[in-house]
Each structure stands twice: as C-alpha cells, then as structure tokens.
Amino acid sequence: MNIRYAAAALGLTFALSCSNTGTTTTTTTTTITTTTTTTRAQAPYAAVLNTFATTKKFHGVVGVASNGKVQYIGAAGIANRQTGASITTATKFKIASVTKTFTAVMALQLVQEGKLDLKATIGTYMPNYRGDARDKVTLDNILTYSTGIPNCEGNTGLGVYQRKVTTDEFIATNASGKLEFPPGSKFSYDNGGYIILGRIIELVTGQSFAQNLQRRILQPLGMRTTGMLATQDVVTDLAATYNLDDNTKQFLNDDPMYIENYFAAGAMYSTIDDLLRFDEGLFSGKLLQPAMLATMLSPRPALYNVAIGFWVTDATIGAHVYKQAMRQGSIWGANADWVHLIDGNKTIIVLSNTNATDLPEVASALAVVATGAPSTTK
C-alpha cells in the first residue's frame, strides 16, 4: 500500500511506498475518553473529536492551546488491538518526523553557543564523513532538505530500517552517496540529513542525542513523558501502531522495524501534554533567543516555504489569514500533525496510531473552533 505524508496546506505530498505483511485485526467500537469533564467552552472541540472518531476512524489524541494555555485535550480509540486498551490523554505516541523539530531546536541552541555554524559543512564537524557532501553541504542545507544527498531509503523504503545498525553505519551506508544536485538549489525531503545532524550534535557536545534532548529541552520544560525509542525498550503506555488496509479496510500491525535507525529524524515518543509544553516553551522564547527563533521561522519560498523544523505558510481560516508554522510526521501507523498560528498564538496538535484518518483535516476543524470561524466540518 502507499503511505502518504501530506503537507496539505502547501499542496505537497511526500510518498513512501511500502509493503504490508502485518497480522489482520478487525475494527472494534471506538471509545472516547477525556481527563476532565467537558465544559461548555470545550464542547465544540469534543464534538469535532466525536465526529472524526465515529465517522472517519480516528484513533488518537487532540490538543488545543491559546496563548500557551491549554483549552482542550481529548482522546478517542484503541491503543492496543491485542489487549483492547483504550487511548487516553496520557497515552504515549510515536511522533515520527516531529522529532526533527526537536533536533532543529538543539542545533540552533548550539549555534547560539558558538558550537555550530549554519554555514559550515558536514566535514567541519564530522571529519571522518566520506560522502560527496563532506565539504559541500552546510548545516543550513540539512535543516532545509536541500542537501542533494540521495534519499537514504533508496528504492528499499522501509528496508533500511529493518536491519539493526549503528548511526555511523547507517550514515556510511545510506547517507553518503554522490550528490544528485547542487546543495541549496532544490528541495528534496529525506531523513538522512537529520540523522547526520543528530550525530553532529553528539560529536560537538560529547553527549548522546538522548542526553542532549533531556538536558536542553525536556528537563527545562518539565517534559516527563517524552524520550527516544529503541526496539528492545519497554515504554509503558505506548500506543501500538496500525495500518488500514486499502482493500480489506481492516487494521494491520505495522511491519517490524528498528525505530532507532530513524534516530534524530524520527525516533521519539511523546504525549499530547508534553508536546503542548514543547510548543509553549518554543514559541514563548524559553528555548531560543528571539533572533534565533525568527531565523527558525523564516520560510524559504524557493524551497516550498520550508523553514527550520517547520514549514511556514499562510492559512485562511474563515475570513482571516493567519501565518502558521506546521510540522507533520508519518511512519506507517504513527502519525502526527502540529499547527501553530503564529499571529494568533494558537496551537493544534493531533496524534494518531493509525493511518486511517487525514490528520490535517482534523487539525483544520479544530482550528475553526479555536479561531471562532464558521464551521465547515461535515
């Protein structure tokens, strides 16, 4: 089947073709749970959640914040189809490429500290790197998906994540080829660059990526239910992930993989509460200085409006046009959609453990409620 990572507001679609060989599991009744009683102000958000859970197979959590204050958190669906465990607002989710925003923030923190330079090349920090990009590709190229390094997945799709290797081995084997175009001249979405960047963060700090993550972001913001995934680790309350088969319309287990191979490009887990903390901390200036945050949120029109860690575009909601920062993530059944309306200071985050629902559609419906625009949800 075809798994689609859709940047809907940009009219872009990043596609990864993979095979499905999971075990069939039949669909069961969707349940909706919340941590608190729904207030009158929260009822419209709950109605959106109910609509997508009952009519569009949504399984996951949603969170909405305004000016850094949580307005609504709700959960629906099944976390584990073997045990029947329900998703709650405390359920942990694989956040896939949302990991890249954490990586980008740490890289920019190191720029602030004078330990990294966005104009410096890979070889400046990884002298043992043997790829064609060594003295040609800058950190800015990596952060904006414009390296020219061939896609690390090649023609194998999931295959590069199904053999356990070290990060250095992954880079040497899958992210060190001949450049396909001059760096900076073209947008080409890929995980390989961010995996290289994660390794650079380790080399310049002398600490593991996980240690940097903990020290630089998680501890300062009080994020206690976020971390790095490894196949052998038991993470309590972590939602299992599933694909909806196009033909049978039944849920299948995701194919096995070594999630740690995604490393700084996609190997994190989190909860809706922690991601709202991250959003508030980032956009309120707790993690980056104002000038660096402005750099992060500066779009590159020639590269499909990619910024650093986000895409930054205009979004029309009702009669108003908002400047939005958006970040999506998708690894088979693990899916995430994060939208921050910069000039409205409103946040919508949607996490799911299946590919059954169009998450940007969920986020858009929640944004309509958050901004008071006329509803278009059907």
Give the key terms.
alpha+beta; 27% helix
What portion of the residues fall into strands of 2 or more residues? Answer: 15-25%
Shape annotation: globular
**Biggest sheet details:** 7 strands, antiparallel
The overall pLDDT, averaged over residues, is 91
The SSE order reads EEEEHEEEEEHHHHHHEEEEHHEEEEH
Structural class of the helix and strand makeup? Answer: alpha+beta
Oligomer: single chain
Radius of gyration, in Å, reads: 20 Å
Order of adjacent strands in the largest pleated sheet: 4-6-5-17-16-15-14
- Please, how many helices? 10
In short:
The protein has 378 residues and is of the alpha+beta class. It has helices at residues 43-55, 99-112, 122-125, 139-143, 167-174, 192-205, 209-221, 272-283, 290-296, 359-371; strands at 2-7, 12-17, 24-25, 32-33, 60-66, 69-76, 78-80, 85-86, 93-94, 227-228, 242-244, 251-253, 268-270, 311-317, 320-331, 334-341, 346-352.
Give an overview in words.
With 378 residues, the chain is an alpha+beta fold. Helices cover 27% and strands 22% of the residues. The chain has helices at residues 43-55, 99-112, 122-125, 139-143, 167-174, 192-205, 209-221, 272-283, 290-296, 359-371; strands at 2-7, 12-17, 24-25, 32-33, 60-66, 69-76, 78-80, 85-86, 93-94, 227-228, 242-244, 251-253, 268-270, 311-317, 320-331, 334-341, 346-352. Strand 14 and strand 15 (320-331) form a beta hairpin. Helix 1 (43-55) runs antiparallel to helix 10 (359-371), helix 2 (99-112) crosses helix 6 and helix 2 crosses helix 7. The longest helix is centred in the N-terminal third of the chain and has 14 residues, at 99-112.
